[in-house]
Write a structure and sequence with these properties.
Blueprint: H1 7-10, H2 14-29, H3 50-64, H4 72-78, H5 83-86, E1 87-88, E2 91-92, H6 94-103, H7 127-138, H8 147-153
Antiparallel strand pairs: 1-2
Length: 163
């Protein structure tokens, strides 16, 4: 599987992508699609556990013909930051939190802040995070190429993307 989306999904509208992502998440979590909104927290609202994130990622990769490498968000967020600027002992630092907010504008910036334990980050993930990751990948981009665009518009797992 390559990083490029399969030809059959490239022409999907943003709404179609969102519906497909919601369906994938519903199937993975054995949930009703009517109970899932873009703002639904996977862990808090839908009861997802760490292992579910892996299943969701696998299903999204298969459904959309994309590749979402493990630790991609963390790698992009670390960028050119010195390790101690990003995190110390698994705790997000101010510059690391700033970069994470730029990468994941879908998350509540009050929760994605300095002092957050990185192991807690998946509890902040919403359906919208996955929708936007898929949209970015289907568009043929790397997540970091959307930092400025996502941050300017405000739009847009235990390990799958982070550890």
């Amino acid at each position: 599987m390559t990083d490029a989306a399969s030809p059959s999904v490239i022409n999907l509208t943003p709404d179609e992508i969102e519906k497909k992502v919601i369906q994938v998440i519903a199937d993975s979590l054995c949930a009703d699609t009517d109970a899932i909104t873009p703002q639904s927290s996977l862990m808090r609202d839908l009861g997802a556990e760490s292992i579910d994130f892996l299943d969701i990622m696998f299903r999204l990769e298969k459904e959309f013909g994309i590749k979402i490498p493990q630790r991609e968000i963390e790698r992009m967020a670390r960028g050119g930051l010195a390790p101690e600027e990003f995190e110390i002992n698994g705790v997000l630092q101010a510059k690391g939190a700033e970069r994470m907010r730029a990468l994941l504008p879908e998350l509540n910036p009050e929760e994605l802040c300095e002092g957050l334990a990185l192991r807690e980050l998946p509890s902040l993930f919403t359906v919208e995070v996955f929708v936007n990751i898929v949209k970015r990948k289907v568009a043929g981009g790397e997540l970091d190429s959307f930092i400025n665009a996502g941050a300017s518009t405000g739009a847009s797992n235990d390990g799958l993307l982070l550890r």
